[in-house]
Amino acid sequence: MPLSTTPAEYDLAIVGGGLVGASLALSLAPLGIRIALVEAVPPVHGEQHPSFDERTTALANGTVRAFKTLGVWAGMEREAAPIRRIHVSDQGRFGTARIDAAEQGLEALGYVVPNRAIGAALWQGLSRTPAVEVIAPARVTGSELEGVRRVVHYEVAGEPRALGARLVAAADGIHSLVRDQAGIDADHVGYEQVAITAVMTTQRFHDHVAYERFTAEGPIAILPLTDGRCGMVWTRKPAAVERMLALPDDEFLREFQAAFGFRLGRFLRVGQRSSYNLMLSRADRHVAQRLAVVGNAAQGLHPIAGQGFNLGLRDAMSLAEVIADRRVAGTMDPGDAGLLQDYADWRETDRRRIVAFTDGLVRLFATPLGVLRSLRSLGILAFEVLPPAKSALARLSVGAAERVPRLARGVPLAGTR
């Protein structure tokens, strides 16, 4: 992966080498097209990338199949904990629901993997891929349309440079500079919630169960990890967060125990705590002229259902698929307007369904109204006894859209070598 020293022309330039941007590069690498990946963090320090921190991500089965097809799953499998069952409860109410992978004919409902392990495996894959030129560390300063290409301006060690590409993919996060400069607006709606994350040691083995517990302040998620510990996401009101982060470990554990209960026995230890604000962000469009928006640049979701990264990865897989199909059909221009419209139509359907599902859950379980709380408890009970409802939720492990990317089904892209 040589460092670029001179401006060049590419078929595709990906701005942002986080989890989604790196995955997009790997998906398209076998097609024989010229790809540049522009990233602010040096590739030799991939494990220190801001996206590759100690937080964990729940990977849907479709995501795992894609990583297997791309040849990078082996690099993260050792740290991947399967989710065999999901347990859902509502604090202070009588409803509980359980989803069992075996009952759905699945080996697992998903896998929990540290972001660090995902990122390291992706960048190891890129290091074996000469088709992708990594330009890093580089700070992108702008992007503009210029005829049948888009020009990306960036700096390396303070020196201004530029490259041209027939298609640019904006994978540079919620506050995407490339997206904004292309004239695509984005809405950012705060939930007035903050997620506190940490790794915890429990008295009882998690037995590969993921817990979702709804409380008056927001949901609690407990995710199984490979070493017997658990990853925790505790949603709190902003006013409480500073105090919670400053509490001694024993006091923090005592308050968390009161909110979650004793399904895992006592919580014995908690690791370093961190926090981040929760919001729903959506780009108005997925495309502009010679620009495709993917991952968090396209949408950022509440973690309540663990769908954010999986949805963003389906952006990458869908874009790669429409490019591959057009290449087989003889269309060599990845920035073709018709190709981009096909991508936009596909992604909008998937995103609309996932956003409606996750945002609806947040708002339903955030309401303080007693009648609605009773109804949602009844809904949890009904969900427990209705197999079709469980099957529908289990299908989220593949994706909510009717059209599932081939990579998510474990099928290589057309035209790959």
* Rg estimate, integer Å: 22 Å
Which architecture would the CATH scheme give at its second level? 3-Layer(bba) Sandwich
Q: How would you sum up the global shape?
A: globular
How many domains, as an integer?
A: 1
Classified in CATH, the superfamily is: FAD/NAD(P)-binding domain
**In DSSP terms, counting alpha (H) and pi (I) runs of 4 or more, how many helices?**
11
The residue-averaged pLDDT reads 87
In the CATH scheme, the class would be: Alpha Beta
Give the terminus-to-terminus CA distance: 20 Å
- Beta content: 25-35%
Number of strands: 20
The third-level CATH topology is FAD/NAD(P)-binding domain
Instruction: Report the sheet with the most strands, covering strand number, pairing sense and barrel closure.
Output: 9 strands, mixed
Poorly predicted regions = 1-6, 369-386
Helix content: 25-40%
Determine the structural class based on helices, strands and strand pairing.
Answer: alpha+beta
